[in-house]
Amino acid sequence: MRIIDARSRPPVPAFLADRTYVNLDRTLRNVHARGWQPTASMREPSLMGYLAECADAGIVRAGLPARVPNRWWGGQGNEPVFDACAQHPDFFFPYAAVDPFAVGAAEEIARLRERGARAVVLEPGIADEPAYVDDPAIRPVYEACQAIGLPVLLMGGGETGPDLTFSDPARFERVAIDFPDLPLVNVHGGWPLTQAALGVAFRRPNVWMLPDVYFPGLPGEPDYVLAMRTFLADRFLFATGYPFCPVDATVRRYLSFDLPGDVLANVLYGNAARLFGLDPR
């Protein structure tokens, strides 16, 4: 089965200078905390090792999320991500990061799509001055993305801000209501407010779910699985969030849920191919 990993951070220059790899011991402790065993390419970061693990697991494409430089997690901006994708164009595809509070941010959206960005990454909760996803100052960027049909990867869970209020699904829903034609991907799936986040996705057909490193293996797993079986079969995206989750073990865990064949095919490949325009079929 062909698989698209919708969010991965392999050991390429775009990510190696970030806290994820600089503080590798912390990352590996995080891997163990999620119930996984780190693989060789995770213990000693190796792009060739990572690519081999992807090939063995059936992963044929991987989305690389750029990150606006910030004081919490690092971030190297867009150029290193575009460079990595240019070096492996048949495997990697880019998501461009935008600082929604920067002057002229909305005007950058069309240019980024022209450069090949398959989506825009917005992470207001980890900005140098953290903000909520429904901050009115972000509206011009949402409007620009909606106008040209470019999906937004909007961090909506996990360590998305200084406290849990930054993961509030009600704020995510307000954005979905205001921009009904904009595909909004809930990165980290609203975790740990899983049921409320899934409730928003039930109510708002423009909301997609990408829990990546918070699924599977953590509380809320049965809720995500049930959503995949029912109303989110065509809006749930497989993603490992590598290097926080191992590639092959994550794939095998998805396979263990005994999902119907058409649902599994959508979750592992079809949904991402459709949303990000990766497969002309």
TrEMBL record:
Q: Which PANTHER family match?
A: 2-AMINO-3-CARBOXYLMUCONATE-6-SEMIALDEHYDE DECARBOXYLASE
Q: Give the keywords, sorted.
A: GTP-binding, Lyase, Nucleotide-binding
Residue span(s) of domain SRP54-type proteins GTP-binding: 151-164
Coiled-coil ranges per the record? Answer: none
What is the protein's name according to its record? Amidohydrolase family protein
Organism (species): Polymorphospora lycopeni
Q: Which InterPro entries match?
A: ACMSD, Amidohydro-rel, Metal_Hydrolase, SRP54_GTPase_dom
Spans through the membrane: none
* Pfam families per record: Amidohydro_2
